[in-house]
Amino acid sequence: SDDFNARALRPDWTLVDPLGDSEALLTGNELVLRVASGASHDLWTNALKAPQVLQPVADVDFQTVLKFESASSKVYQMQGFVAKQDDRNFARFDMLFAPASGYPNGVLKIAGSAIVDGVGELQLEALAPAGTTRYLRVTRSAATWTLEYSSDGTAWNSAGHFEMPLHIKQVGPF
Prior knowledge:
Layout: E1 14-16, E2 22-26, E3 31-35, E4 43-44, E5 47-48, E6 52-56, E7 62-67, E8 78-86, E9 89-100, E10 103-116, E11 119-128, E12 135-141, E13 144-150, E14 157-163, E15 170-173
């Protein structure tokens, strides 16, 4: 647990920067992940290119709430939370601004995905109001993963749940 209100990452957090072109900054009240433009920073099957700030955790049930100050507003721009067993087995929960039928300027998608043995599969997806959705809440109970989203951190909307056994070793934002 961390609200990132310090000036430096605590020693139990590690910046994972696969492309070597990102940085994690703490402003005193938030974590800022800066990503260079011009390269894909995806976190998917055979494309673990997104910077992540990870913390080792015990393999137990948990609930976490993430507040994002920046809005995903450009096509394929995303931010989210990852729970990792290893680089080939992890659960990913994100806000993704993407094209969609009937939305010529794009739409904010709230999504949960399972990557098992290096093969990714979208497990759940919901459309959310762009510009107002700022919070994600991820709950793990045994092998059940539940994803919710909110504009204020109080009233929650369900994006759904899925089953995925996972021996978690690290979690964090990306």
